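User: I'm putting together a small comparison set for a docking exercise, and I want a reference complex before I start. The sequence is below, and the ligand is KG4. Could you produce the 3D structure with the ligand included, as structure tokens?
Assistant: Of course. I'll restate your input first, then give the structure tokens for the complex.
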Amino acid sequence: MNILGIETSCDETAAAVVADGSRVLSSVVATQVAVHHHYGGVVPELASRQHIEAIVPVVSEALERAGLRPDGLDAVAATQGPGLVGALLVGFSFAKAYAFARSLPCVGVNHLNGHINSVFLTAGAPAFPFVALLASGGHTAIYYVESHTRMKPMGQTRDDAAGEAFDKVAKMLGLGYPGGRVISELARRGNPAAIVFPRAYLDKSGFDFSFSGLKTAVMRHIQTHAETLAQDMPDIAAAFQEAVVEVLSFKLLSAARHSDCTRLALVGGVAANRRLREKVSGMAAENNLTLHLPPVEYCGDNAAMVAAAGYHEFTAGRRAALDADVYSRTGI
Ligand code: KG4
Ligand code: ZN
């Protein structure tokens, strides 16, 4: 069964065709980074306009790369929320109209559910249940995943998301937006032990996160070491990254122990972070746990994960009515 997935929740216009919820026939992502970079973050109104311009060519390219014509599709799935309302409206309205015009069923997908389903886009998919850490620019949370469509939140960030912390620190260091990848590249040349930034474990037995204190500590360090900033940048990046990675991996491992679950997954844009992948892989191996990681190309926002999640929404019998609306916020 071929599903056309569409994702426009933030600053990527993406379309993909996925067969049977796991075999990616094509995945196209048009990023708007060049447009927002100038402003140091995503400007919602500009994001919507960019989606409007990109949606038709991106969908056409996804079909072309999949070697399909629209009549080779069985359903359309699009991100319904959470995200920027104006941005979501472009992709979700397009999906409903595209499906209606071709008498195809249309399903709405929760973006977070999409990220979690990204682990099924590669060989060796996890059996249920498993514990997943979703770390992205908009969300940081741990879920107990019971099925493709059912996941219970175990904990979440009380302030900044992990990716947001990376972005804000990159901005403080004058490295532009988005910052995750730049910080992780810079960190490779730095010493993570050179500076000790705080780790906010909060209640060690709980699974909530907080990254605002860390962000403030980095800012204070930058202000008090202005004269050596240029040479200290790799150490600041490495020490900051280590503080984030330690807390994320500690909480994921504790959540797995607490749930008596031997399968872990790491998803979302921050799951592309090399140091985080390495640390969680090491901890999983030491504790006889199996870690499931999506390929790096499916960590950040993409439409293959939306098509994968959409497939399971579809088989569960859910459909988006023509008057269904998008939503900006939600749990799962
Ligand atoms: O999942 P995603 O593409 O969008 C959201 O749903 O938010 O995640 C984007 C976030 C950004 O904050 C970006 O800085 C971060 O993921 N990110 C990284 C890396 N690559 C992207 N953070 C740390 N290390 C990376 N290599
Ligand atoms: Zn995302």
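The domain at 124-293 is CATH 3.30.420.40 (Nucleotidyltransferase; domain 5). The beta strands are 2-7, 12-19, 23-31, 75-81, 106-110, 130-135, 140-145, 151-156, 263-267, 290-292.
User: Thanks, that's exactly what I needed.
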